[in-house]
């Protein structure tokens, strides 16, 4: 009989409460992992078993980097050592999105937050893990839907532009027919009066112009096609002004010629990294609204201008229409809210989404009281991915695998 | 000799009309818009005027009304690439107008030259 405290008694008691603790941990929905200073796994709960496909016995005592994506696995011991020496935190107390490695080798996204505990046995680190796979799937599905929606509004815009397009193609076709007829006359004359080098040159010059008009017709079709065809998002470094100008031309095809469109493009704008077709889509949507707003009004005018502030490229489209009434303002950017008989109410909703996907914004100054509306598209000079990549050498959520 | 006037804002169509009309040996005067044409003064009665309806600024139909208001109006041929509905709306109060629709048939122009 010992009245003194058995030195092993502590352990005994510890084991009992540890067992209780573990059974509690096993009821947790989130994955819980505890490691020691040497990155050895001490606790691996049931949720983790489901998440990673390992049984607890298979992992306890092993280095936690077996559960990490290769890039992290290699560096993890280094981080841990570095933290213990310098106290510099990479993740502790912060939490971030990282990738886990399933038993079958597949990598999957997890939201990881890490806390630290000082125990008699030394420091321990407790990780809480949430599997983001399902959320990621939803996100991807949403992106796909959004892409479809963007394409749909393009098609709706084109539908409305249908007769305008016919008109636009009419011009080069008309020119071609007239040129060909003119050349035909030159040939007729040559047959009667004999060939002269001058007559041949004249005919050739006309044929060259006819060719140019045919190219013009082709490029109209090409531009339309690039708007309609289904395609994934892309980022390219492009010059802003020509991009805007092109979209303005496209929108004005066959529109009411009485609307004066003033283009005030800022000089020396730096290139911007965007999805060019999407940004053109924004220009088309906002400009179409502006042109529709001034239609039938006195001295209808729209000013399209581009400029630069210290961190953004700005595109402003201002009209001298009636402006937007206060009570329309609240749901202006909501999908399927339209003040028009034939509108789908998608133009602004899509445009704002596109601007935001680029890390930018679509803003409105509603005007009114004699002033028209003004919409401003603001795009960051550096795209969000780029700045993120440079501001943090380690961007766990964006690791590439297999490259 | 009579002059053929062409009022057309599209560069390609305008240039092609100039080539064709010149090929027939006529004198051509071409204008980008209605204002430029009217600034150039009143055309003599035996001139022929080809005018596009969808002009920027003063529309083609206004130019036609202006010409019809002359003591002896010259011959006018309207050209348009618009849909029938748009054209009818533009020409509601201009009956008996000769109208050619784009794309122009190759032989459409020559009878007027
Ligand atoms: N420049 C503007 N001036 C006045 N009202 C505007 C202007 N731009 C948009 N609006 C109002 O906002 C509404 C929503 O615009 P939005 O572009 O989202 O849809 P829509 O133009 O009705 O349809 P669509 O999907 O064909 O673009 C418009 O119906 C109109 O009432
Ligand atoms: Mg719209």
UniProtKB/TrEMBL annotation, chain A:
GO BP annotations, alphabetical order: regulation of DNA-templated transcription
One Gene Ontology MF term: ATP binding
This protein's record includes keyword Plastid: no
Signal peptide: none
Catalytic activity as recorded in UniProt: ATP + protein L-histidine = ADP + protein N-phospho-L-histidine
Enzyme class: transferase
Keyword tags: ATP-binding, Heme, Iron, Kinase, Metal-binding, Nucleotide-binding, Phosphoprotein, Transferase, Two-component regulatory system
Cofactor names: heme
Enzyme Commission identifier(s): 2.7.13.3
Source superkingdom: Bacteria
Record-annotated Histidine kinase domain positions: 164-383
Record-linked InterPro entries: HATPase_C_sf (IPR036890), HATPase_dom (IPR003594), His_kinase_dom (IPR005467), HisK_dim/P_dom (IPR003661), HisK_dim/P_sf (IPR036097), PAS (IPR000014), PAS-assoc_C (IPR000700), PAS-like_dom_sf (IPR035965)
Residue ranges annotated for the PAS domain, each copy included: 17-71
Span of domain PAC: 94-144
Coiled coil: none
The protein's role, per its UniProt record: Putative oxygen sensor; modulates the activity of FixJ, a transcriptional activator of nitrogen fixation fixK gene. FixL probably acts as a kinase that phosphorylates FixJ.
NCBIfam families with a match to the protein in the record: sensory_box (TIGR00229)
Name of the protein in its database record: Sensor protein FixL
